[in-house]
Structures are given as C-alpha cells and as structure tokens.
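Example 3.2
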Amino acid sequence: MSYDGLWEVRMRPQGSPAELERRRLRAIDLLQRDLPVHVVAERLGVDRRSVRRWKRAYRGDGRAGLRARPASGRPPKLTAAQRRQLVRAVVAGPEAAGYRTSLWTCRRIVDVIRHQFKVVYHPDHVGRLLRACGFSPQRPQPRAKERDDRRVREWIRRDWPRVKKTRAPRRPSDLPR
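Structure, written as tokens:
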C-alpha cells in the first residue's frame, strides 16, 4: 500500500497461528472491559489499526472472524520427521553417507535428500534448508596430509620462544622522542 510517497510494509507477526489467535481474543476481552483501543494496542504490543481490524472482524463474524488461519505459502517438501532424519545424516558426516571426503557440499546434501526421501531440492535452496535446521556454513581449514600435530606442538613449545621477536620495552610517555 502506498500513501504520500511512503510504503507500508506488512509483515507477519511473530508467533504461531494459535498464539496470534489468543492475542486477538485477548484484545476483544480487553475491549469488552471498555478499555480504549490505544490502551489495548499498547498492552498487547500491537498497532492500533490491528486492534480496530480485530474489533471489526469480531463484530462481523464473532469468534470465527478471529480464528487462526494456516500459514500461506507452499508446504514444505520434507516433513518435520524427515528434517530430523536429515539432521542426523548431516551430523553423522559425509563418510557415513558413502562419500570419500569429510566435506559436505550442497550438491551432496541434495543427493542424500533425493536418495533417502525421494524429494528433489535445488542446490541453492539447500543452504536455507540447513540454516532452518540449525546449521551454518563452514569452510574447512586447509591442512597438509603430512602434518604431524604432535611435532607442531613440540616445536611451538621448544623452538618458538627462541625464534619469536619480542617487543621493544615501552618508553615512558613523558620522554621526548
């Protein structure tokens, strides 16, 4: 909606549909106690226009006008149980899924989803799916195959203090340079 060159952005409020319905019913309860719209809006942390809209809906359709509606949009391709299985597969690692290296890629996860659940995802969407499951992108640390961590720790403990440059002692600030 546009007015006076400004845009009104309508965003879905936070909370489940049931919580949102409870908030609307609470608003009606407060309005029926003769509280003004602005006080109800302030108490519930919503805009006055929302309270007025709920009031109109209640007058027109009663409780049915305030009922929770299912979220719009395309339903998820994976069920909640399948997402939990996917999380377990990702945590188990790529080797457990039959890959030779321990690096997950979006394409590998697409393959796992296709094989386990018979569902096709585009690799670009897998990042969003994984973020929704609580994962974040990681970059592997490059390491030489020949690296011996025990010898590295030994060198740091024994040789590093001898090689490391030390800072020059600080001069008092009142001395001229």
